[in-house]
From TrEMBL:
<dbReference type="GO" id="GO:0005524">
    <property type="term" value="F:ATP binding"/>
</dbReference>
<keyword id="KW-0067">ATP-binding</keyword>
<protein>
    <submittedName>
        <fullName>Amino acid/amide ABC transporter ATP-binding protein 1 (HAAT family)</fullName>
    </submittedName>
</protein>
<keyword id="KW-0813">Transport</keyword>
<dbReference type="InterPro" id="IPR032823">
    <property type="entry name" value="BCA_ABC_TP_C"/>
</dbReference>
<dbReference type="InterPro" id="IPR003439">
    <property type="entry name" value="ABC_transporter-like_ATP-bd"/>
</dbReference>
<dbReference type="GO" id="GO:0005886">
    <property type="term" value="C:plasma membrane"/>
</dbReference>
<feature type="domain" description="ABC transporter">
    <location>
        <begin position="14"/>
        <end position="262"/>
    </location>
</feature>
<dbReference type="Pfam" id="PF00005">
    <property type="entry name" value="ABC_tran"/>
</dbReference>
<dbReference type="GO" id="GO:0016887">
    <property type="term" value="F:ATP hydrolysis activity"/>
</dbReference>
<keyword id="KW-0547">Nucleotide-binding</keyword>
<dbReference type="InterPro" id="IPR027417">
    <property type="entry name" value="P-loop_NTPase"/>
</dbReference>
<dbReference type="InterPro" id="IPR003593">
    <property type="entry name" value="AAA+_ATPase"/>
</dbReference>
<dbReference type="Pfam" id="PF12399">
    <property type="entry name" value="BCA_ABC_TP_C"/>
</dbReference>
<dbReference type="InterPro" id="IPR051120">
    <property type="entry name" value="ABC_AA/LPS_Transport"/>
</dbReference>
């Protein structure tokens, strides 16, 4: 059964209702509902195994939920292939890095634009004329992202050789290269030191200011979530236990209980 934790927002970018996902006997998501507004930074929190990554896997078509609806600007996403959902404007970064290690940073970002290209990246290397012009346009877009994320010094470096914090930023760049309307960030600061975490927070705010896209942030670092998010959804054992502004969530008895229960 869906638990309504908040009144619906008018014309949300993303609307998820009654989302239910099972793996055999495990219910990863149990009637989860939430909405993300245009330009909003929406966070999803919860203890390990709460179902956070499962939400992303449903949103981008990797898993098909047994029940529920997901709409992006009113168009249903359930049952579509991941590539179609990406083309509709949903991009994602991964909990573990999703870059091609042997390709340079620039090449990885160009691949992020693949679905936007009519002639294709590899065809573009062999065809002149339209393909060449198209490639120049895409290069320019990639260079803008490189500048925004201050990745210039690493442009020609194979992604596999990038320092960890830089590689995470490069993955953010790859997702942005897709020109998404909704960006899904799965633990963008996992494994980072304090300085790298603060840098990432700064880049996320910068991206948001410059590009104005909506983001869903899954993150265990509570101070980052509380600093950045407009609103937060708290999950526990696949159930949405609270939705609200960071200050409300921090003081929600069920949220406190879920975290203390997990720590005990
Ligand atoms: N492919 C799968 N097959 C079977 N069970 C799965 C699968 N994916 C997720 N689960 C189960 O679903 C539940 C939710 O997992 P999920 O990865 O969504 O949690 P999470 O909140 O992202 O956790 P973490 O904070 O550890 O990343 C867990 O019980 C997990 O074991
Ligand atoms: Mg996860």
């Amino acid at each position: 059964m869906e638990r309504v934790t908040e009144p619906p927002a008018p014309n949300p970018l993303l609307e998820v209702r009654d989302l239910t996902l099972r793996f055999g006997g495990v219910t990863a998501l149990d009637g989860v509902g939430f909405a993300v507004r245009h330009g909003e930074l929406f966070a999803v929190i919860g203890p390990n195994g709460a179902g956070k990554t499962s939400i992303f896997n449903c949103l981008n078509g990797v898993y098909r939920p047994q029940q529920g609806t997901i709409t992006l600007d009113g168009r249903s996403l359930v049952g579509r292939a991941p590539a179609d959902i990406a083309a509709m404007g949903v991009a994602r970064t991964f909990q573990n890095l999703g870059l091609f290690g042997h390709l340079t940073l620039v090449e990885n970002l160009m691949l992020g634009r693949h679905h936007l290209m009519r002639t294709g990246f590899f065809a573009g290397m062999f065809w002149w004329g339209r393909a060449k012009r198209e490639e120049i346009t895409h290069r320019a877009a990639v260079e803008e992202i490189i500048e925004l994320l201050e990745l210039e010094p690493y442009r020609r470096m194979p992604a596999g050789l990038l320092p960890y914090g830089v590689a995470k930023r490069a993955e953010l760049g790859r997702a942005l290269a897709m020109e998404p309307r909704l960006l899904l960030l799965d633990e963008p600061v996992a494994g980072m030191n304090l300085e790298e975490t603060e840098d990432t927070a700064r880049y996320l705010l910068e991206v948001r200011r410059e590009l104005g896209l909506a983001m869903i942030l899954v993150e265990h670092d509570m101070s980052l979530v509380m600093d950045l998010a407009d609103r937060v959804l708290a999950l526990d054992f696949g159930v949405a236990i609270a939705t609200g502004e960071p200050s409300e969530i921090q003081h929600d008895p069920q949220v406190i209980e879920a975290y203390l229960g997990g720590a005990a």
